[in-house]
Amino acid sequence: MSDSLPELADAIVGCRRCPRLVEWREAVAADPPRRFQGQAYWARPLPGFGDPGAGVVLVGLAPAAHGANRTGRMFTGDRSGEWLYAALHRAGLASQARSERRDDGLRLRGAYVTAVNRCAPPANRPTTVERDNCLPYLVEDLRLLRRGRVLIALGSFAWDGALRALRELGEGTLRPKPRFGHGAEVAIGRFALLGCYHPSQQNTFTGRLTEAMLDQVLARARELARSRASSSQAGY
What we know:
Elements: H1 5-13, H2 19-30, E1 49-50, E2 56-60, H3 68-71, H4 79-90, E3 111-115, H5 128-144, E4 150-154, H6 156-169, E5 185-188, E6 191-196, H7 201-204, H8 211-234
Parallel strand pairs: 2-3, 2-4, 4-6
Antiparallel strand pairs: 1-3, 5-6
């Protein structure tokens, strides 16, 4: 167990638990596509990013091979991140609409971005063992984010990972298991869990996920975070 988010970040960055993922993330960095040649890749596991006092916690699947695995920040350097951070900015949760690199000045206010897996997996598909190896880091994120009240699961893999992490955290287990869907909402312990389609190009280019749909989920998350924080302060 870590005593702070910076301590947890150090543990995550140094992790080499999954040989397949270590090999993949480093191989991608050694032979990047032409548009990224000459850039220094992060090529290590990714810690979470955002406000330590966040009430809203967004959970993704894993870093993208040429996105966060390159830039060293969650959801940064790819189209999914462009959608996500623009929406966070519209919601008043980010200081700027773009996230391009670790030193670009972006700050999150009331939000924290993390993932189930911290290394870029081949074909964006971690194995079950790789998921389970990494899950304790998400549990620790949630334990250390003491003001966290709302989880937004970006996609079904994140929904499943969030449910597993909440169970390990001792927040409870729901039976039957809640099904993922965009706009799905369940209460588990001190958290509300919201489902949101992942802002991947597969979803945004086809219109399965629109800006309005993403904005609605973030607005609901802010509303729930405020109400749950007020209830906690009142001792309910």
